């Protein structure tokens, strides 16, 4: 059950396609249910997104910044496959690979509430997902 935040410039007019491509990659690599989809997409002025090359020697043209919040337990290899799948999926919707920036944050079942002020993984209302 990843929560995915997606920020991109308002020059990109295909937010739904970008979000869909990212979700499809997560479903494909992690095998989560199709309707296990929680995304927040924000289009903002390009000047409000600063994502330089971190010393890798390339230029970004119009970055898409993706933050994935999910339960811990997936291997480094699974994460690497996910990053590659997201970059591959975004190509057909017009996002260049150098413009894909992903931050991945892990947490535990106690860190989620899906409504009603309860931590449903702890109360047993939801089964804790397995990696």
TrEMBL record:
Superkingdom of the organism of origin: Bacteria
InterPro entries in UniProt: Tauto_MSAD, Tautomerase/MIF_sf
Protein name: Tautomerase family protein
Organism: Microbacterium gilvum
């Amino acid at each position: 059950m990843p929560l995915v935040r997606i920020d991109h410039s308002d020059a990109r007019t295909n937010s739904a396609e970008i979000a869909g491509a990212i979700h499809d990659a997560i479903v494909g690599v992690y095998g989560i249910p199709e309707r296990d989809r929680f995304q927040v997409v924000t289009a903002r002025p390009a000047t409000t997104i600063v994502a330089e090359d971190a010393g890798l020697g390339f230029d970004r043209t119009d970055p898409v910044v993706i933050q994935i919040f999910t339960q811990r337990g997936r291997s480094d290899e699974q994460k690497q496959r996910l990053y590659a799948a997201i970059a591959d999926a975004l190509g057909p919707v017009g996002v260049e690979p150098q413009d894909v920036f992903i931050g991945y944050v892990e947490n535990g079942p106690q860190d989620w509430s899906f409504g009603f002020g309860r931590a449903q993984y702890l109360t047993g209302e939801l089964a804790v997902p397995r990696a």
